[in-house]
Amino acid sequence: MKKFSGIIPPVSSTFHRDGTLDKKAMREVADFLINKGVDGLFYLGTGGEFSQMNTAQRMALAEEAVTIVDGRVPVLI
């Protein structure tokens, strides 16, 4: 298993007022953090609203995160 090191911040989950995933905001946050030099991104942790999401919402967020990051840094879920 690969050992992770460096700065790997928790990423907040972003939603529209109607409760749907805000993919544009997700991309903006990920791009900002990656451009600032983080070594990875940690989604669905304690700062990510995971406890308020159902399994389908968690899967959708995880899939979108991996798509957005596109291999630029490791994604931890």
From TrEMBL:
Listed GO molecular functions? N-acetylneuraminate lyase activity
Sorted alphabetically, which keywords does the UniProt record give? Answer: Lyase, Schiff base
Q: What protein am I looking at?
A: Dihydrodipicolinate synthase family protein
Q: Name one GO biological process term.
A: N-acetylneuraminate catabolic process
**Family matches, as InterPro entries:** Aldolase_TIM (IPR013785), DapA-like (IPR002220), Schiff_base-form_aldolases_CS (IPR020624)
Q: One GO CC annotation, please?
A: cytosol
Superkingdom is Bacteria
